[in-house]
Amino acid sequence: MEFKSFLIKYAEIGTKGKNRYVFEDILCKNIRSAMKRIDGRFLVRKEYGRIFVDCTEEYDFDEAVNALQHVFGIVGICPVLVVPNMPWDALANEIIRFMDESYERKDVTFKVNCRRINKEYPMHSMDVNIEAGAVLLDAFPELKVDVHKPEVMINIELRDQIYIYSVRLPGPGGLPVGTNGKGMLLLSGGIDSPVAGYLVSKRGVNLEAVYFDAPPHTSPQAKQKVVDLARLVSKYAGAVTLHIIHFTDIQEAIYHKCPEDEITIIMRRYMMRIAQILAEKNDCQALITGESIGQVASQTIFSLQVTNAVCTDPVFRPCIGMDKQEIVDIAEKIHTYETSILPYEDCCTTFVARHPVTKPKLKDIEASEALLAEDIDDLMKQALATEEIITVW
Ligand code: ATP
Ligand code: MG
């Protein structure tokens, strides 16, 4: 069957009371942007607690489903046959055609489920269920009715037009991006931070991102890799504004003036400080990192406490309780993994301690940071002045 429309199912939005309309409108807008990425013309419309995507030109079915599967807030995608309002005899033929063209094999169990939203329709929903069941059994004797656990559920919705659908493809879930403020993602070239960005944007949060670049210790390819990762995340998160900050001078100052075993944690604190400044400047309500407890020395719970101390906004770390493999599984699902594992050095691999502290004490770290007092304010200002902004989508 060639479908010209999709019925979009969304779950959590339905529970948001008065905000529901705002949520639905943002979801419609996000669907429109997602469909713009592919060939074809699509009309997105909202009607009585339902969203429909009409395909008004030739389009590729798999491509359209894939685009919809990147829009947070969608839980189900139902390819739907839309026919004009028509009397029962004509509708019965459409129902038969739907079954015939949608299912090659007819030795399945089925049930008909009618919703009558158009109260003018001359038959009640129960009667449609019974009559439709009868005409289908008549047309395809191999069919069997099962009202409890049918393999095929034929849904018929009687509205201004009539909608017939049975298959429900999974959506990505979550909440529509743009319904929950904005977060500043610390995006490195690794596996974890793109996953962290994906997971937070799944809850409706818009993303900006910051990458700390360290030329000449890191290459242009390392930077390009982060731009590419931001673009991959933007397939779900919508447009992402990436801020690129030259971090080299700060790193070198830390490297030369602070105790060797503390350089990573001190560097992390300066990254967080700059990210915090950028978050405030850009109207973000939270920072986001790919940290996971115990993954490396700078991510022990003690290190996280010390890193966190420089932030005033909440820091979201959605990978915090995940094992590496669990993070990798998500990275593979969202297609960031192949890019993340490209072998370009990042700034943290250039300035690594041989034996980093795993139980830093805030007081000690603050004392070491005092060794930078003379020029760190200038270095921070200079770093912020190097800001390069790239928006990807
Ligand atoms: P990832 O966590 O992305 O796989 P990683 O494991 O190398 O990279 P760490 O160096 O341990 O990460 O850093 C932890 C977190 O700090 C990262 O998840 C990321 O959010 C942030 N981060 C690290 N390096 C950078 C950087 N160069 N630019 C921006 N953020 C960074
Ligand atoms: Mg990591």
Strand and helix layout:
Layout: E1 5-9, H1 20-36, E2 42-47, E3 50-55, H2 61-68, E4 76-84, H3 88-102, E5 109-116, H4 125-139, E6 144-145, E7 152-158, E8 161-165, E9 169-170, E10 182-186, H5 192-201, E11 206-213, H6 220-237, E12 240-246, H7 248-257, H8 263-281, E13 286-288, H9 301-308, E14 315-316, H10 324-333, H11 337-340, H12 347-350, H13 362-370, H14 373-385, E15 388-392
Parallel strand pairs: 5-6, 5-7, 10-11, 10-13, 11-12, 13-14
Antiparallel strand pairs: 1-3, 1-4, 2-3, 4-8, 4-9, 7-8, 12-15
The structure holds adenosine-5'-triphosphate (ATP) and magnesium ion.
Residues 186-188, 190-193, 210-212, 271, 289-291, 296, 298-299, 346-348 line the site of adenosine-5'-triphosphate (ATP).
Summarize the structure in words:
The chain is α/β, with parallel strands linked by helices and 393 residues long. It contains 14 helices and 15 strands. The strands form two sheets. Strands 1, 2, 3, 4, 5, 6, 7, 8 and 9 form a nine-stranded mixed β-sheet that branches. Strands 14-13-10-11-12-15 form a six-stranded mixed β-sheet, with helices on both faces. The radius of gyration is 27 Å and the shape is elongated. The protein starts with a strand and ends with a strand. The relative contact order is 0.12. Bound molecules: adenosine-5'-triphosphate and magnesium ion. Magnesium ion is lined by residues 190, 192, 290, 295.
